[in-house]
Amino acid sequence: MGNIRLEDIARVVGVSKNTVSKALRNADGVSDEVRSKIIDTAIEMGYKRVINKEINNVTVLCREDFFREPTFWPNILYGIEKAARSKNIKLSTTAIDVKTEEEQVIPYTVDGKIVDGVIVVGTLNNEFIKKIKATNIPLVVVDHYSEEIQCDYVNTANKRGIYQALKYLYENGHKKIGFIGNNEWAYSFKRRYDAFMYYMKLFGLELDNNYIWLDIKLKEVDFVDNMAYFKEKIKYNDDFPTAWVCSNDKIAFAFIKGLMDMGINVPGDVSVIGFDNIEIAGIFHPALTTVNVHKRAMGEKALEQLLFRISNKNEPYEFIEIDTNLVVRDSTKKHQ
Length: 336
Fold this sequence. Notes:
The chain is α/β, with parallel strands linked by helices.
């Protein structure tokens, strides 16, 4: 008999391929009775994987500065850690500094003799990730994507998030909407910009390049105190957009502060939407309307997908997106 696939097992048992996948990687959502039947059938059919393979060690790689960023990345890392703890998997995290990344030095923790799988979190250099991939250790990448690297990816549904933001603004009477980001940054920022351009046209809204700012450089911890960028950019007049979408919450905070420092009221004069829903979004003044990213769920899904990949090395790679939802707070209002 040739190679047995998940759909072959699904057909025999009479369930979906997704149910078989969940059962074989011990994920939630499958009853004990069905799980047992699927595993027994897989063994009988000679499915070429190690059922219930003991997985002991997983290593996580991320940029060193993620540990100085207290809002977004720690939640993804926590999700990975929580999922690993629930399955009694030993987890190690290695911070990659600039020199290590540029020189493509593989950390000692990435060793097939001591680690079963690797999770890369965030935007590391593609050449560096290629070297990790070349070790043939099962790999999952979170919040990043490269067409050049074949592996499993877990990302936010960035396009859907922007759709939710623009749909809300459109339905609340906003016709001219600006955008702030930086296309030299992460994959997610590029996707959010592309989605903004697409849905602005879809809703028939005016696109004015004067109010699409893609050169912001507020990346440091004290970003909110660096107002030079916005003092130069903001020229408030009758042509100024009534609403803005920002690539993340940090940009939104700085933009709101810049507006208010110049006497422009938010949301009275201008509505602002962020993206990520970091912890301080709800206590910022005004409380920020933002697209909620399920950060811990991304981490949990990454660990789950890695366990599946370790036991199913020949299955097709998957691109997984975790859905978003819009959280409406005080930084937006209906345009009269």
